From TrEMBL:
GO molecular function: protein-disulfide reductase activity
Keyword Nucleotide-binding tagged: no
Organism annotation: Sphingomonas gei
GO biological process: cell redox homeostasis; cytochrome complex assembly
Main localization category: membrane
Location in the cell: Membrane
Name of this protein: Thiol:disulfide interchange protein
Amino acid sequence: MALLRFVLMSLALWLATAPASAQPPGKGPHVRIELIAETDRPAAGSEVTLAFASTPERGWHAYWENPGDAGLPVRAQWTLPTGATTDPIRYPVPQRLTIAGLMNYVYEAPFAPLVTLHVPAEAKPGDPFPVRVKLDYLVCTDQICVPEKAELATTLTIGDGAIPADRRARFDGWRAALPKPLGAQATYQRDGAMFRLGIPFPAAASLAGEGYFYPLTQNAIDYAAPQRVIREGDRVVVEAAAKAPSGAVNGVLAFGDRGFIVQAIPGTVPPAAASGGWLGATLLAFLGAVTGGLILNIMPCVFPILSLKALSLAKSNDANAKPRGEALAYTAGVIAVCLALGGALLAIRAAGATVGWAFQLQDPRIILILLLLMTGIALNLAGLFEIGAPGFVNRAAARGHGGAFATGALAAFVATPCSGPFMASALGAALILPWPAALAIFAGLGLGIALPFLLLGFIPALRRRLPKPGAWMIRLRHILSIPMFLTALALLWVLWRQAGSLGLILGLGSVLIVALGLWTVGVRQHKGRSFAWLFALPALVLAIAPAAFVRPVALEQKFAHGERFSEARLAALRAQGRPVFAYFTADWCLTCKVNEKAVIETAPVIRALAKGKVAVLVGDWTNGDPELGRFIERHNRAGVPLYLWYAPGTVEPEILPQILSKSLLTERAAAR
């Protein structure tokens, strides 16, 4: 019936629009398709993602799985080894094309549907694994349509499942274009000639771009009729002309090129009035970011850097100091780094990678450089050497600008591993807002971090409460070197976790070289000799050189009180009716480690979880696993920590606070 409908529509289109001189189409294929496997050496019993990398010829288009008023979806016939199976094809968000009043859901630019191939557990290492598929599909211009065929094949070899880095990045880009599961149950209602769809969506996670609902269920709505997409509180309402909806209605809610898979059941959907768009959500997220940044000042991952500013603030109490200029310079340094990191994050995500907040700390080379920086700061506070800068830097610092700006920049950079209260949802919203609004949220985070020092700089009454400068500052400086040494030690441990034994050896060697170089500087300074830094420069350059050889290694994941997180394991445990506590952590996240040692791994919590038969799943995001990144993002979070509690019989998990308590977990475990 669909084929007859399409033939009649195509004939009508041809007669209505084609000029008498129209030429027949040139030789195809008009959509070139290449079959690509994410790995050429899949492991037995594993899953392999296959891509149909498709490139339409200019002026031609292919069709989505629901082609709309006209067109046909692709049909695939697989020839696979015994025991192998494939899942249904997953499509990226399509485009809309209206021709002669008919709505078509199409692809006019390069796109890549994905398929999951299941390799049987009986496959033997070293054996060839041929994969063949025959595709029948339709391609069209705005005047003519042509059926095409493609016979594609690739031969894999059963192996270790290794994925080349370039191919992983390419597939991550294709996966990023797929609509993501929404997770929450939607509801629809037919109100006379109106189809109204209510979709739960958190108010803090604002949506960017023009909204549109692409139905997968046939005959639910009139495809060509205009749609009205409205944001109201914690839901999105779609209004369209109804046809004959019945039973479940499925589809994709798209905002720009970002899509969410929607599954709706019949129910009652109240009408919605037009909202103020994303501006209100941006303001809410901005305030959340400011509050989160303010709270971040007391988080353990930020406190060591605040010790540097404590000394300069005490000095600002001097009548000759310029506290306002110093406070503004510090604030400018913090906000500049937050904007730079936020802009880099948005650019990387726009390129198709799945990364989140603190993405730079997933690179062991950055960890090595931070290790050397923390070591240098600790040795400086301990009195081993003094920082002697060029004249123009000294003049800037004397005016209260240069040193304060650098301190603020460093504080913001080191603060990125943390995700505290209010901050997590704000940064999660930033990832789906228009880029100007997202950058405003990142700036709000920087403003929150700098706010205490900004207030001290502009309110003399607060500054008068600080003690007068004196000899105590030298003793305090030596004491404050201790948390800096501890920070350096923690970074060395993170480097070992990320880059293995080789990374640990290179890190220790670099620290030793830096220490020797700075000791040389201190000796010459104490003797009153000039050009003290000149003799240390070669050592500093040599210490940074190992960063070129540090590479991430596969993490050895052993969890004493849980098991490795995977969505398949989560689904299996929930199908058994068990409560599940899933938490997502990283070795560079100090907040995560504090929660684990002070709460999750304590004896009372372990006993309570075991007594309540609570399954514990651990997602380690230290090296930026893209699959974990996508799962974290689906819960409107930009990074770790993330704590989820799945109670039996519930659809959605409870998102727990970023600061855990023992009672929080023991009470839930006992409630089973």
